[in-house]
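Supplementary notes for students who missed Thursday's class. We covered one full example, reproduced here. Read the sequence, then the structure, then the short commentary at the end.
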Amino acid sequence: MSTRKEARLVSLNVGKPGPLPYRGRTVQSAFVKTPVEGLSRLDHAGLEGDAQADLVGHGGPNRRACAYPLEHHPYWTERIGHRLGYGAFGENFSTEGLLESEVVVGDVYRVGEPGRGALLQVSQPRTPCYKLAARHGRKELAAWFAETGLTGFYLRLVEPGHVRAGDALVLLDRPAHGVTVLETNRVMYRDRHDAAGLERVLAVPELSGPWLETFEDRLAGVTRRPTEKR
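Structure (token representation):
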């Protein structure tokens, strides 16, 4: 599996809030990211040179960095209809070797060399939002992300450090539960009433709180007896 061979941070991307056209209006967003060279510090304040316009939907302890697999670019290039560059989906880390079908929620990676790199933990899938559509001019894009499960994922910070394009992402620890990012997406977006699946993801302590709360509410609805008041 790809996490057993060397995974790599191909491009490190940052952006500041700016205007993003959407449905005849303009919203503030840091979705547009630009690749940067050299070392950048990643700490509890975030990634150096990066910021978020929406601090509710983005950023925070469970979302210090967003990663997206470059392996998906050929698929999206064909479906969207134009070529894609690094940071095309607003991600900080454009990666190779870390697919949603293989990355486990709670995986801990060292990004960069020992002694200067950062330690990061997979916290949740990336949540598709309307800014994907705004950036690429395809109103269906957020729905397509959810449908395919090719969302990328968020990382929480375990230990600050310095990262740069070209760094290896070394898997240091993997939880025994084995629940992948893709499986979490399946239960969130496709098989919403799969009680067994909901129970599996609810047993993942590393999953971020808002996702756990959503799954708890959904499982309560699935298992509620028909005679109970709805």
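Commentary. Residues 108 and 173 are 5 Å apart (CA to CA). Helices lie at 73-80, 130-136, 141-148, 181-190, 195-202, 209-223. If anything here is unclear, bring it to office hours.
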